[in-house]
Design brief:
The protein has two helices and four strands. With 89 residues, it is of the alpha+beta class. A four-stranded antiparallel sheet has the order 1-2-4-3. A hairpin with a 7-residue loop joins β1 and β2. The longest helix has 21 residues, at 68-88. The radius of gyration is 12 Å and the shape is globular.
Length: 89
């Protein structure tokens, strides 16, 4: 409910991560630094690809070791940043 409609994400049946993907032109590393300024973090997905330049619009979100309330707050922060970035594009 927090992410813009242009985004899609995995629905894990186990594990520790949700994989999210934005529009092709998105630079999640740039989004990462804006999120850190707001005390929220994730791992830009590009670091899980073998070829440079791949996965720039992807992100890996950890959902362990945090309460549902805290996750909801963090995803809200990310959704706000993502929406502002989309509006600026």
């Amino acid at each position: 409910r927090h992410f813009p409609v242009d985004f899609k994400w995995s629905r894990p049946e186990g594990g520790m991560f949700v994989w999210a993907e934005g529009p092709d032109a998105f630079d999640m590393e740039r989004i990462y630094w804006r999120a850190v300024e707001r005390h929220t973090a994730f791992v830009p997905g590009q670091f899980f690809y073998a070829q440079p330049g791949q996965g720039l619009a992807t992100m890996r979100l950890n959902f362990t070791m945090a309460s549902g309330e805290r996750i909801d707050t963090a995803v809200g922060v990310l959704g706000d940043i993502l929406a502002h970035q989309l509006a600026a594009a």
